Amino acid sequence: MVHLRLLGLVLALTGHAVADCSRDTLEAAAESYIAAQTAGVVAGSAFAKLLDPAVVYRQNNKPSDATTGIWSKALKLDHNRTILDTTQCASYTELISTAGPYVIGVQLRHASATDAASPINLVDSIVATTGDWAFNAAKTLSYIATEDWGTLPEADRSPRATLQAAADAYLDMWSNSTAINAVPWGTPCARTEGSAHVTPSCKSGAPSGGTAAGKNTDRRYVIDETVGSCNAFCAFGGQMPDSHEFRLIDGKLRLVHTITV
Ligand SMILES: *[C@@H]1O[C@H](CO)[C@@H](O)[C@H](O)[C@H]1NC(C)=O
Ligand SMILES: *[C@@H]1O[C@H](CO)[C@@H](O)[C@H](O)[C@H]1NC(C)=O
Fold first, then answer.
1. Is 161 found in the same domain as 121?
2. For the chain, what is the mean pLDDT?
3. Does one domain contain both 161 and 108?
4. Which ligand 1 atom lies nearest to the CA of residue 35?
5. Together in a domain, 122 and 209
6. Mutate to test the pocket of ligand 2, among 173, 174, 176, 216 (most ligand atoms within 8 A of CB)
7. Comparing 134-143, 173-182, 183-192, 209-218, which segment has the lowest mean pLDDT?
8. Res 2 pLDDT > 70
9. Does one domain contain both 120 and 159?
10. Of the candidate ranges 123-127, 213-217, 254-258, the one whose mean pLDDT is the lowest
11. Dist. CA 62 → ligand 2 center (Å)
12. Alpha-carbon distance values, 131 to 16, 72, 79, 101, 191 (Å)
């Protein structure tokens, strides 16, 4: 207590804020990204001010940049939803533009895991459009419009290790024939994969004969315990740019969203 008071006094005297990866600051950063994406211009935007000069842009698992990637397209958005990871200081935003048409996942990562005011040094995106796997933005929107991804009561939350383990078990199903038994299947559960919608069991049609060639590699996670969600970007089957997002309620899998390019 004494130490904290002293720290507070020192900070008050020196005028420096406590470095903290706060939800508010992470959310504000994600919202400024959404505004820049809506405008289709990063240069000169509020979002640009949050970026590290050496920020890396990735689109569909390849290097990209703000002037040629999805960020250079003004998008009329029908849907946005963001989860916040205060442990890694990162966010994940899901966007749908039926006019685009696009279904997009974007992970933003801040330079310091303990300071959301630190510059964003990675803008990582999975961008699906017409011709991509089972793509139909209007159908995706219709399926997910009524879903609840809201804040969970404490009793229904899982530790982040549990959320990541569930995501990993799920993604392992294509390379490990027994991983299906490690997924904490819940009911009802709804799985939305572009124009495909599977419910009330997400296990229906799940792979149980994984092979080494099916390994989903290069996994990048954003985890938000308050909503029970783990998002993972990966190279699906080692190749296809892909986003999977999972929601667990009381330790059980209840919602799955995928974006596959
Ligand atoms: C993002 O979604 C919220 C509702 O969740 C909405 O109020 C807001 O206008 C949306 N933002 C944009 C830029 O579409
Ligand atoms: C396959 O998945 C099961 C269940 O999660 C796990 O116990 C096992 O270690 C996995 N095998 C390999 C080779 O990763």
1. no
2. 92
3. no
4. 13
5. no
6. 176
7. 209-218
8. no
9. no
10. 213-217
11. 30
12. 50, 21, 21, 11, 20
Distances (CA, A) of 242 to 126, 197, 218, 233, 251: 6, 17, 10, 6, 24
Q: How far is the CA of 210 from the centre of ligand 2 (A)?
A: 11
Residue 18, pLDDT score: 56
77/182 same-domain check: no
Residue 122: which domain range? 2-129
What tokens does 55 get? 């920020």
38 and 85 assigned to the same domain: yes
Give how many domains the chain has, as a whole number.
Answer: 2
Which CATH number covers residue 15? 3.10.450.50
Q: 196 alpha carbon to ligand 1 midpoint, in Å? A: 25
Whether 170 shows a pLDDT value over 90: the answer reads yes
Mean pLDDT of 135-156: 96
Judge whether 13 and 48 are in contact, CB under 8 Å.
no
- Using the 3D structure, point to which of 129, 164, 179 is the last residue of a domain: 129
Please write down the HEC assignment for all residues of 93-111.
EEEEECCCCEEEEEEEEEE
Residues 123 and 169 in one domain: no
User: Beta strand pairing status for 102-112 and 115-128?
Assistant: antiparallel
In this structure, the answer to whether residues 17 and 50 fall within a common structural domain is yes
The 10s digit of each residue's pLDDT in 27-49 is 999 999 999 999 999 999 999 99
